Amino acid sequence: MSSTLHPHSEGSRAAAGGLTLFAAVMMLIAGFVDIFRGIMAIVHDNVFVSTPDYVFKFSLAGWGWIHLFLGIAALMVGVGLFRVSLWARILGVAVASLLLIANFLSIPYYPLWSIVAIALCALVIWGLCVVQHEDVQGS
Question: What's the superkingdom here (predicted)?
């Protein structure tokens, strides 16, 4: 008997569900943190760095609103990911990609957290893309 899992075995489906659950939890965390980051920027908290010559210059409040809306979207999609549906996985990749881009563009304003958030979003994208649709739904 081979020790390799059949692509549609119970172990394969459990691993697929586990990765989707991991991505859902990470998406919720990223959403909450981005909401807090957005609120901090909107009220002009002192944790942000002043970057007068930055190419993608928005007001700090403008970045705050972007992060606030993306955080809310991440929360909604994160909750949808608990249903392990294809539409939630597709939206999850899209929202995580937008969060990744927004955090990349805001590196000069809050460098350390932006890099951590980029890594977090990359893990979410990986967790949602590595799972085959058939593995999640069963055979």
Answer: Bacteria
